Amino acid sequence: MTDKQYNLCVDNFSDNILRFLVKNLKDRQEAEDILQDVFLKLWEKHKEVDNDKVKAYLFKAAYNTMINTINHNKLIDNIEIKDTVTINAQNAHSDIRDILSDALNLLSSLQKASLLLRDYEGYSYNEIGQILNITEENVKINIFRARQKMKKYIGSIDNII
What we know:
This protein is an all-alpha fold. It folds into two domains: 1-77, Rna Polymerase Sigma Factor, Chain: A; 79-161, Arc Repressor Mutant, subunit A, CATH 1.10.10. Helices cover 70% and strands 0% of the residues. Helix 5 (109-120) crosses helix 7. The N and C termini lie far apart (50 Å). Mean pLDDT is 79; it is low at 75-93.
């Protein structure tokens, strides 16, 4: 990868990676720090990284750095998910984004990352598996379970409106 290709990668992929990190971390400053680390790692290895696979490399590096940061800072300590969550008219959220954000927060970090990479970033199951270091079957299982948890949390569309 040339210096010019590196600069194009920064321009083309930094917004998508930042959005992915912010959605997972809920901390923009922490996400920006990780994004900077990811592009520093790419710069250090820019001569070794194949330009055709740079996007997957960046997302994989971002995911791994994010997980290391979470573990290091102990931001997540045994998240417990309630078996049943009900929404009624009295406590229903007024904003669909809030509801979706709350539903995403119920997911494990692996389920959340799998779902966001698939539905938000448009990666294939195989690419997600490579990024997260899991099999394609595990990606499909994580996405299915994530959607089921979100569906259970959200319930009927009537609860939202």
